[in-house]
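Possible regression after last week's pipeline update?

I re-ran a chain I had predicted before the update to compare outputs. Posting the input and the new output here so someone can diff against the archived version. Not blocking, just want to make sure nothing changed silently.
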Amino acid sequence: MPPQEPEPPITRAPRDGPRAVATIATIATVATIARYTAAEALHNRILVSALVTIVAGVALGQFAGELALTDTRGISAAAQAWLFRIAAVFLIASFAISSLVREADDKGLELLLALPLPRAGYLFGKWGGCTLVAAILTALFALPLLSVAPWTAVSAWAISLFFELAIVASASLLCALTFTHLVASLAAVSAFYILARTMAALLAIGGSPVVPQDSTAFRFAAALLEGIGALLPRLDRFCRSDWLTTGAAAWAEMPWLAAQTVVYVSLLLAAAYVDLMRKSV
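New output (post-update):
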C-alpha cells in the first residue's frame, strides 16, 4: 500500500474575531445614541435658552458693575458667572431627566432594551450625549466671561463647570431611571445639588463656638450632617467666583476636582446601571 500522506492540521478561526466585531458594533451603537441625544437637545431649543441666559447674564453683569464703586470688572464677572452656573446646571438636569422620562412614557426605552444591545451601552450613550451637551453649554457660557476676566481664569472656571455638569448629568440619569417622573426627579436632583453646594457652610455653622455643643440633639444633628457631607461631592469648590475676580490659584485645584468628578460620576453611573438592570422589558 502506498504511504498515506499526513492530514493537514485543522486551523480554527480565532475566537476573538466575533467578539471584536460585537465590541465595535456596540461602540458604534453607543456613539449613535449619544449623537441622537445631543441632537434631541438641539430640537428642544436648549441652545436658545442658553443664548437668552447669556444676554441676561451680560446685562446683569453690566448692572452689577455700574453699582460697584471699585473693581467693576470683578463684580461683573462674578455676577455673570453665578447666573451662568445656575442656568447650566438647570438646563443639563432638566434635559437629561426629560429625555429619559419621555422615552419611558413613549415606550421607547422598552424598545431599546429589547434590542440586542447591552444595557450599559444604552446608559453610556445617554450619558455621552448629555456630556456633549454639557461641553457645548460650557463653551457658550465661558465666552462672555473673556471680556471681564483673564483667559487663564476663565479656562479654569470652564473646565470646573464641565466637571460639575458631568456630575449633575450622572445624578439626573440616576434619578430619572429611579423615579421615572419629571417633577420627582427634578426635586431629587435639586436636593442633591443644593446639599452638595451648601454642605460646607452647614458644617462650618455646626462647628461654630457659639452653638450649644453640650446639647445632645445638636451633637446628633452635627454628626448626621457630617455623615451626609462625607457622601456628597464638594461642589462648593467648583466654579469659584474668586478665580475670576482675584486671580486665585485655580489650576492647583484641577487635579482634586478631576478626581472628585471621576469618583462621583463612576458611583452615580454604577447605581444607575444597577437600577437599569432591574427593569423588565
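Follow-up from reviewer: compared with the archived run. Residues 50 and 256 are 28 Å apart (CA to CA). Marking as no regression found.
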